[in-house]
Structure formats: structure tokens, C-alpha cells
Amino acid sequence: MLAQRLDARTAPLHPASTAPAEGEPRWDPDGIMRTVAGLLPDQAILVDEALTSGHTLFQHTVHAAPHDHLQLTGGAIGMGLPVATGAAVACPSRKVISLEGDGSGMYTAQALWTQARERLNVLTLVFANRGYQILRGEMAGMGVSTLGPQASRMLDIEDPELDWVGLANAMGVEAATASSIAQLRGLMQSALAKSGPFLIEVRLNR
Fold first, then answer.
1. Which of 179, 176, 182 is CA-nearest to residue 198?
2. Fewest CB atoms within 10 A around its CB: which of 41, 186, 192, 202?
3. Residue 90: exposed, middle, or buried by beta-carbon count in 10 A (0-12, 13-18, 19+)?
4. Rounded CA gap, 97 and 57, in Å?
5. How far apart are CA 153 and CA 155, in angstroms?
6. Angle between helices 29-39 and 181-192 (to 10 degrees)
7. Which phi and psi (to 5°) does residue 47 adopt?
């Protein structure tokens, strides 16, 4: 209703918010968020638990196609995959795009099986930085600038390293890995053009 009162839905898209000035965006969280915003379909449901990878999401989606945004509202993690699953059940005709951290996703990975079982229209992007980066940020906020080897190991997801493509496939969800903007764009375009669940493991540098 607010958008209608402000005539916001008829405002033109701002190309600068979804496309780089020249060339491809960098392969970093900001460039990835810019790419996601540019490919966001009309009336999509965006579920955001990207955490440290999604800090610039709002500045890129502000002029994206009209969509709903569901975000983590408290301090707990692990809501992204089940919220995306519930949104897809509630709105089967709309594409759900789930932005998920790898650490957070491990809390509720079984939601992928439900997505496969119910053939839900969910595209999941897992930001694989192989660590609980949000907790590293909390430690820094408390003034802890250096972690010992044992404390650092508790915040890593590397021993053993997760295989999100294998994990998704084991639960019946088609999946692939992206390690460049071109790969991400191609996989997203393909997944958005068809129904059913799909997962992209977005391999990030630490």
C-alpha cells in the first residue's frame, strides 16, 4: 500500500544499481550481490541469511524488480533454508531465492530434502567462505584481534571441508558450483527459467 501511495512501483529501474559501469563485477560479495539484484525476477521472494556476504544487498536491490524480502531479525542463525521452504509452500507460483551462509546452512540443511520432496520453486545460493565469519566479526567487536589456533579452528568449516553440491545432490536437489560472475550468472539464469529446487555453491575466497 505504501508503494502504491508513493507511486514507487512505476519508478524506472536504476541501471547503475544492477550493472557495473564497465566490465564484469569483481568476484567478491559486493559484485555477487550486484549480480543477484540484476537477475531478480519480478515478484520474487528473497530470503536473506547471507550475513557477512550480504552487507551491500540493499544498495543493489533498492531499484531491482519488485520483490518481497525476508530477513534474519534476531541473533540466531539457521533460519534461511526453512524460511525459503515455507515461502515456497505458501507462494508456489513465485520464485524464491535463498541467500545462505555455509555455516548457517548447516543448522537446517534438511530443508533441502523437503524442497526436493515437494518440488519447491527455490533457488539457493550458499556463500561458501568455509567459516563462521559472522562469529569472527563478533569476536572483533569485543576487541579480540587475534585468535589462537584452537579458537580459530572452532570458527572454521574446513576440516573436513563441506561439499554443498554433493550434500544437495544427496537430498535430491540439483546443484552446481560457481567461482566467477559469468558462471554465477549462467547458473542463475538457467535455474530461474525452470521450476523446482536448485542450489549454487558460491565459492568465496577467505
1. 176
2. 186
3. exposed
4. 13
5. 5
6. 30
7. -105, 120
Rounded (5°) CA angle 11-16-19: 115
127: nearest Cα among 22, 31, 25:
31
The count of other CB atoms within 10 Å of the CB of residue 157 is 16
Task: Report which of 89, 87, 94 is spatially closest to residue 66, judged by C-alpha positions.
Answer: 94
* CA dist list (Å): 24 to 30, 65, 144: 12, 21, 36
pLDDT in tens, 5-49: 887 765 555 444 444 445 678 888 888 999 999 999 999 999 999
Domains and their CATH numbers in the chain: 46-141+161-206 (3.40.50.970)
What is the 3-state secondary structure of the chain? Answer: CHHHHCCHHHCCCCHHHHCCCCCCCCCCHHHHHHHHHHHCCCCEEEEEECHHHHCCHHHHHCCCCCEEEEECCCCCCCCHHHHHHHHHHHCCCCCEEEEEEHHHHCCCCCHHHHHHHCCCCEEEEEEECCECHHHHHHHHHCCCCCCCHHHHHHCECECCECCHHHHHHHCCCEEEEECCHHHHHHHHHHHHCCCCCEEEEEECCC
Entry pTM: 0.81
- What pLDDT, on a 0 to 100 scale, did the predictor assign at position 15? 47
